[in-house]
Amino acid sequence: MAAVSVKDVQRLFLQAVLSRGVLSLKLAQTLWVKSKVAVMAADNNLEIAHAGTRDEWDAFVKRLNESLDNLDLEFKQFQEETTGRDMYAIVNRKDDAIAQMATDYTAGEIAFFKAMVEQIMLAPHRSFSITSLAALREVSHLKPKSNMSKTQAEVVLASFVAQGWLMKSKRGRYSLSTRALLELMPYLKSTYPDEIATECIICFEVVTKGVICPAAKCQVCMHYHCFSKYIRTRRRECPTCNTEWPGDQERMNPIGEGAARDGDDGRRRVRKTTENEEGDDMDEDEDEDEDGPPPPRTQQSRKGKGKKPAEDSMEVDEDGDEAEEEDSDTPVKTQGKRRASRRS
Ligand SMILES: [Zn+2]
Ligand SMILES: [Zn+2]
User: Fold this and answer.
1) Could you give the C-alpha distances from 257 to 28, 73, 322, in angstroms and in order?
2) Which residues surround ligand 1, an ion (CB under 5 A)?
3) Which ligand is nearest to the CA of 220?
4) Which of 42, 80, 186, 284 keeps 20 to 30 A from 276, CA to CA?
5) How far is the centre of ligand 1, averaged over its atoms, from the C-alpha of 318 (Å)?
């Protein structure tokens, strides 16, 4: 039989990790032990340290990362946003993380994912989440136009969740998963610099699920686990504005899905620079009747419910599949309005 070596532990371990995406420290260590056991079983004489100590683990991770270095990959440790648990994932160190999804998804599906990220990042009141209806609605806004059916879109969404790119809450809201936050951070920082600026005052990582100081003008925010630690060890007041804080996170103002209000998802938001970029290369596949001028604004009323003035072009009824497709065709004239309502 072929000879095995210590390298095989890395190989087996990587295979196991890659099939799981994000994993806890405990699971990662279990997979590590299993990989060692498997290799040792193949060759009794092979010398592999297997005391399972933290030092041994750290040394293994270090060697693994030396192997991954040439590929611009890293087996990275981080804290899960919701729980503060120690987690690991293989992450791409290049900031083209979305491009790497091309191995698993079609261009149209990746465009759908980017649209999801956009709606999640721009969701009002820092809810950093959207409903399934709002998610499915994005399909009709994709550029170039997508012929993805609603059922296909649901399958793709389920796959985003299964692959650990998105999270779906009990209430059915989609948000960015730990993996997405980890791997897409360079992309998020360059694309949504304002929205991503909500940094935890304790651990300095981005907060998309946590609490924010109830004082009107104060922007101090923390992860839930950072808040618990803070409350346990310090006085119950905001470290910046000294507003008295409740000791209970439920009574703090939420960041994340708890911040969503009824009607938030009734309209979609579009990043202003997206509009500009897309405006620059307004393309033929946008409308069938090419060569002609951009579609007239009368599109609004052509098949819509007739009640919508043009100014509302970016505010779309959730339940109007028909009405939704329209405003994506009239980007230029409505830009100003969209910008204005982006942060409302
Ligand atoms: Zn934190
Ligand atoms: Zn404060």
Assistant:
1) 29, 31, 27
2) 200, 202-203, 223, 226
3) 2
4) 186
5) 34
Closest ligand to 216 CA?
2
Position 223 scores a pLDDT of: 94
What digits encode the pLDDT tens for the residues 89-122? 888 777 677 777 777 899 999 999 999 999 999 9
Beta bridge partners of 92: 73
For residue 85, how far is its CA from the centre of ligand 1 (angstroms)?
A: 12
State in Å: Cα 54 to ligand 1 middle: 24
Fold match between 6-92 and 104-266?
Answer: no
Provide CATH code, domain 6-92.
3.90.1150.220
Q: Does the pLDDT of residue 306 top 90, yes or no?
A: no
Q: Which fold has domain 104-266?
A: Arc Repressor Mutant, subunit A (1.10.10)
Compute how many other C-beta atoms are within 10 angstroms of the C-beta atom of residue 209. Answer: 27
**Structural element, H or E, at residue 89:** strand 86-92
Question: In terms of pTM, does the model score above 0.90?
Answer: no
Q: Residues 6 or more apart from 67 whose CB is under 8 A from it?
A: 10
More confident residue, 230 or 247: 230
Looking at all shown ligands, the one closest to residue 200's CA atom is: 1
Judge whether 314 and 267 are in contact, CB under 8 Å. Answer: yes
- Tokens encoding 52: 């399972």
